[in-house]
Specification:
Layout lengths: L1 H20 L1 H6 L9 H10 L4 H15 L3 E2 L6 H4 L4 H26 L6 H22 L2 E2 L6 H4 L6 E2 L1 H18 L17 H17 L6 H14 L9 E3 L11 H9 L8 E2 L1 H9 L5 H4 E2 L37 E2 L11 E4 L1 H13 L7 H20 L5 H8 L10 H15 L4 H11 L28 H4 L1 H11 L14
Antiparallel strand pairs: 1-5, 2-3, 4-8, 6-7
């Protein structure tokens, strides 16, 4: 079944050039109508959630570097040194709205045209909330309610919705999507995540609601509590196999893991371009975390924890000498594991049950849900360890899991705030390889505690960036709306906090 979907996906991927590069022409010419089935568009939006350049430059080179999961001595990765962030942010914004969001909107419109597509429409609404959350978390106020409506409503300069309104809208979108899903309805086609499994889509929607709700913990606690409670009542991810991931293979170039493929093309392992951050590595080693063998290896594939080492953040090839013996040579620092994460058939991970359990542990700690926070913490750790087997084929022995849990990291935390810190640290580890989420949760919680870098030319004057700047193109083609967004939100600077960012 999945093989058949992937073959269809390849055809759509090839024709997708038309959608991404010539979409405005299609949307303004009523004679160029399309008869693409919604299943094909669902496939396209799942496969093209991000391109190789943005995966490398924004997910890894910006988000993961800002939260010190990765590091580099190169001068072309903005997150490590907080500078030159505008160009990559521009690409992320333009690529997402000119291709992904337009195709997603087409999916919603077509799936809304016939009751036989209700399951597809339900999945599309849930998936759309996922996509828009990523964008609003990065930028703040963004086009949402009018995004992608050029052809259908002649809106070529969409307004920027306030982030508060976007979050309320996304929560409702997921709830509406869940209502549409039903195993008694015609099956959906083209689903690369769960092959049309409605029960799994409901769990994914529930876990996405937990993520959406908890993001509001510091700014709208009543809505956060209500959203999380609704999610728990309706069902969330509970075991490692529930994870939302895109499975890749090496049969065709279009099916390969897009980040791994970009690493290969750019020679990033050979050239020692991006390394595991010393901050992240030191934490893994300080807690004897067995996930180190799944996440890290030397460039030759050696994953022995004893030889793994991290690279300090915020330096270039000249200034790195300032750290003295803490620098052992970039060739001796660890990469993403070349035998797991960087395999061309490694999955792309979107939402994990371990992160859901960690968020629910926090919700329980806050008194928003019933249960035992300590038990949920342990379940989350176990689940994250099990996820390594499903995602990367790395089976962590039960004895190593037990030894990790025996440290009682959560129970030994003496205060509620200390327990929140442990949860934040664990979330940082569990969401490794989903830099968007690691960066967002760090801003929400303030954990783990990070020391800012101080590189000459920083855009943030030594502060850790809180958002990405808007696309420079928007100041030309959508000037009035982007300027209205800036007036409402604050200066278009990387230090401006978005609505939910209060820590």
């Amino acid at each position: 079944m999945l093989s058949k979907i992937l073959k269809s996906a390849l055809l759509l991927s090839l024709t997708g050039v038309l959608f991404s590069c010539n979409f405005e022409e299609i949307n303004t010419d009523p004679n160029n109508t399309t008869s693409i089935a919604p299943g094909a568009l669902l496939t396209y939006t799942q496969m093209h959630t991000i391109n190789g350049g943005n995966a490398k430059n924004i997910q890894v080179g910006t988000c993961m570097m800002i939260v010190q999961q990765t590091a580099t001595l190169n001068l072309d990765m903005p997150g490590d040194k907080y500078y030159q962030m505008d160009s990559y942010a521009n690409s992320m914004f333009v690529d997402t709205y000119s291709d992904l969001i337009k195709n997603w909107r087409e999916l919603v419109v077509i799936a809304s045209s016939d009751a036989k597509y209700e399951n597809t429409l339900g999945a599309a609404k849930i998936w759309g909330a996922y996509l828009f959350q990523r964008m609003t978390d990065l930028f703040g106020n963004v086009p949402y309610s009018e995004a992608g409506l050029g052809y259908y409503e002649s809106i070529y300069r969409p307004k920027y919705d306030n982030q508060e309104d976007i979050y309320k809208g996304m929560i409702q979108d997921v709830k509406d999507g869940l209502k549409l899903l039903g195993e008694d309805k015609p099956a959906m086609d083209g689903d690369l995540f769960y092959e049309g499994n409605i029960a799994q889509w409901k769990k994914f929607g529930g876990s996405l609601l937990v993520r959406l709700g908890m993001r509001l913990s510091e700014v709208a606690p009543d809505l956060a509590k209500e959203t999380v409670q609704f999610a728990v009542q309706n069902g969330v991810m509970t075991e490692a196999g529930d994870m939302c991931r895109l499975i890749h293979n090496v049969d065709k170039d279009a099916f390969k893991n897009i980040l791994s493929k970009r690493y290969e093309l750019d020679g990033f392992v050979k050239d020692d371009a991006i390394k595991i951050s010393k901050t992240f590595m030191d934490y893994l080693k300080s807690t004897n975390d067995p996930r180190i063998k799944s996440y890290c290896s030397l460039k030759d594939g050696n994953d022995d924890p004893a030889v793994q080492a991290g690279l300090p953040n915020g330096y270039d090839s000249n200034t790195i000498t300032e750290v003295g013996d803490a620098y052992i040579g970039k060739e001796n620092c660890s990469n993403f594991n070349t035998n797991t994460i960087l395999k061309l058939d490694a999955p792309t991970l979107f939402l994990l049950p371990s992160e859901t359990k960690l968020l629910l542990a926090e919700a329980t700690l806050r008194g928003w849900t019933s249960g035992d926070a300590a038990s949920l913490f342990e379940e989350a750790v176990i689940c994250s360890m099990k996820e390594q087997k499903i995602a990367y084929g790395v089976e962590i022995p039960q004895a190593e899991i037990d030894a990790y849990l025996a440290q009682d990291l959560f129970k030994k935390a003496a205060s509620t705030e200390a327990k929140l810190e442990v949860l934040g640290q664990q979330y940082w580890v569990a969401t490794f390889m989903n830099g968007f989420e690691s960066y967002a949760n760090w801003r929400r919680t303030g954990y783990p505690t990070l020391t800012p870098t101080h590189y000459a030319g920083s855009q943030s004057n030594g502060q850790i960036p809180r958002r990405l700047p808007y696309s420079v193109e928007e100041y030309t083609i959508n000037k009035a709306n982007v300027e209205a967004a800036v007036r409402q939100q604050g200066a278009d600077e990387v230090t401006t906090r978005i609505w939910w960012d209060k820590k």
